[in-house]
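=== Structural record ===
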Amino acid sequence: LLRIKDYTGKIWLNQDNEEWRQTNDGGKDYGEIDLRTAMEQSANSPFVQLGMDVGTDKVKDVAVASGLKDDTFMADATVPSFSIGTSSPSAIRMAGSYATFATSGQQNDTYSVTEVKQGGETVFKHQKRTKRAFS
């Protein structure tokens, strides 16, 4: 169990004034590992601490900029585990968010219908709108 610290180095306490201890899936202890290994092993603790180091508010800002919606399905960004994906975005939003990373920060609104015709006439055509989410 990793003691999670805020950006000042102070142990983060939950609403019950108890230390937040982050576990990895299966309770596995990886010891000190770099982020590449953490990604390969899907270790939660390093990414929870990284989110606390940079600020979960900034993690949320990037998630929204990449295409996720800040709605009732988005978890509370003030808890440490926010950085490991405690929200429930739709599949199309999640795919769009990953696509923003794949396109080096170019974000496009997600859509499932490209065109609607009525009587052979186009009544709606999706217009691609690209914006820079991050560099």
Observations:
- DSSP finds four helices and six strands in the chain.
- The chain has a mean pLDDT of 89.
- The CA atoms of residues 72 and 88 lie 9 Å apart.
